[in-house]
Specification:
This protein is mostly helical. The protein has helices at 9-27, 30-37, 41-48, 51-74, 81-97, 105-110, 113-116, 120-144, 154-175, 178-190.
């Protein structure tokens, strides 16, 4: 009988996410992962497989812990969808404006796809589309509830907001301007309100 696993998978994946998020796939080595997770390389490989397989597990963990909460937040306040949208955007604004914000792991990875190999692109695409779809849904509900202007096209408005957020996740890593983030997001939201 094999030895029991000597680490908590959730904790290891959380630390693994942070390593890949900070360094990217290509620059991350198993030595980095060993150091940050406090788990020996052979144990990591036995549990997760190759570096790419571990990265895929980290991406899935990131989706569960960072992406799904955004989608869930957009579904709150069924009778007041605009409130759900405003609260979610405020949460995103706070994340982007934080001094230690490293952007979005999915977005960062999309710039590195050629180095990562197969299997990652579909996960990134699927989850970006899920977030985009959640934005479109809450805007559509806001339109039906009379909280959003009649001339707003939900798909176009969702694309604009999603693109604005993605752009801010990249640019604010350099600009470090919370006021710029706030004004940009407020500008998109104000264009939707009745």
């Amino acid at each position: 009988m094999g030895r029991p696993r000597e680490f908590e998978e959730h904790d290891v994946l959380e630390r693994t996410v942070l390593v890949f998020w900070k360094q990217g796939f290509r620059r991350t080595t198993f030595a980095d992962l060993e150091r940050e997770t406090h788990v020996h390389r052979h144990s990591l490989q036995k549990a997760f497989g190759t570096k790419q397989e571990l990265f895929l597990a980290a991406i899935r963990h990131y989706v569960e812990t960072r992406v799904l909460p955004v989608i869930e937040a957009l579904g709150r306040h069924p009778d007041h969808p605009l409130r759900a949208l405003q609260e979610t955007v405020a949460m995103i604004q706070e994340t982007i404006s934080a001094d230690d914000c490293m952007g979005c792991l999915l977005l960062n990875t999309s710039a590195e796809l050629a180095q990562v190999g197969p299997g990652v692109e579909p996960i990134i695409r699927e989850n970006m589309m899920r977030v985009l779809g959640a934005f479109e849904d809450v805007i559509r509900r806001g339109l039906d509830a009379g909280e959003i202007r009649d001339d707003v096209v939900p798909s176009a408005a969702a694309s604009t907001l999603f693109s604005c957020i993605q752009g801010l996740l990249v640019t604010n890593k350099v600009l470090h301007r919370p006021d710029y983030v706030r004004k940009s997001l407020e500008g998109v939201l104000s264009s939707l309100r009745r």
